[in-house]
Design a protein that fits this description.
The chain is mainly alpha-helical. It has 2 helices and 2 strands, in the order H-E-E-H. The longest helix is centred in the C-terminal third of the chain and has 31 residues, at about 50-80.
Length: about 90
């Protein structure tokens, strides 16, 4: 099967956004945990590392999912591969 330039560009943009969002996920999950002692300041009345583990990381994860869905819907429409909204 021959892959066109259009398919290749679509796939490259998909991989780029996936890589960027995985990097953000990695930073939030492991970066903040690794530097927990250095990030020991109060944030909303709690130690920052505890707040991130309890609330902040979850908020970031939901934002990552929402942004990915939004971005991919736009990308699908741009490349003409969007799903139709049949009821």
């Amino acid at each position: 099967m021959q892959v066109s330039d259009r398919h290749r560009r679509y796939w490259q943009r998909n991989l780029r956004i996936t890589g960027i969002l995985l990097f953000v996920w990695f930073l939030v999950t492991f970066g903040i945990g690794f530097y927990a002692r250095e990030l020991n300041f109060n944030f909303f009345g709690w130690p920052f590392s505890f707040w991130v583990a309890a609330q902040g990381a979850l908020i970031v994860y939901v934002c990552i999912i929402g942004f990915y869905a939004y971005y991919m819907n736009r990308l699908d429409q741009e490349f003409g591969v969007a799903e139709s909204e049949e009821e």
